[in-house]
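Predict the 3D structure for this chain.
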Amino acid sequence: MKQKILLIPLFLAVCLILPTYAQNQPTDAERLSASLKRFPASDANKDGELTREEWRAFNNQRRAQQEAQPNQKPAPTHADVSYGSHERHVFDIWLTPSDNPTPLVIYIHGGGFRGGSKNINANSLKKFQEAGLSVAAIHYRLSDAGPYPIMMEDAARCLQTIRSRAKEWSLDSEKVACYGGSAGAGISLWLGFHDDLADPKSKDPIARQSTRITAAATTNGQSTYDLRTFRKWFGLPDLKNHTALYPFYDIKDESDWDSRRVKRLMKDASSISHLTKDDVPVYMTYNRGDVPVDKNTAEGTWVHHVKLGLKLQEAMSKLGLECNVTSPDHSETKYGSLEAFLIAKLSD
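Done. Predicted structure below.
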């Protein structure tokens, strides 16, 4: 009897909540209307009304196009070219035919330094090649293989390896740009601002090659990987660091964040720490606008926040350097896209 009595209030609560919940849910007609506004092409007969059948057919077509897209990408001129001893020390390169040495764009994938692939977007690849640029896409060691700085150093070594073969591949070694999303963005900026890692006295001809680039572009990129800076910029002294940065800095205990070793690494890993007045122009794009951040905000939101681009833009502006930032709340009209920016910088 007691159990039945306890269930009665629960039953009444459910009865009260369900109608309210149902009332707050959009109807099928409302969903279809919203979908039509977002995807006008879904209205197959152009009568101004979207039916379920039209929406289903449109979605099936989009899905088929997305699945077919990888097959539209041309095979690399050279695939899985080795630049080191690790299995991820490889890159693909698409050499664009030209009577003159071609500039080069290098794609560096994201994935939180824990994953990711050199599977470059087919549309970006097409745009670059149509503009007369050659393109490379690289792998690098991840944090399961070791902490920072191996990721950045791998990208630098890959760049040097490609430069060492510039004559063989008819590349313009003076015109090289890097771009990527998230972790790949961080690496691209790091290469763009870091001092040249070339060792002119090395017996290794690859190590003698420059690691300086012409321009850098990013998608949802980070200009810092320093917990102290994240907390300062967001005004959150108790912000917990991103889980991806624990293996990135080989953090074993929370107290490690206050160690001299980690503080030194956090500063060195942050591209903005290396910024000087002779550094390269940058283009940064973000999927979200300037959304509020508090200590409960998902880490994937704040670590890809447009504030990380705006802070870099502010610092670069003080040095007279070009930094374009675009998001739903910040427009950019000079170039219009990441690809157009890189093409412009490499075509100068």
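Residues 312 and 333 are 19 Å apart (CA to CA).
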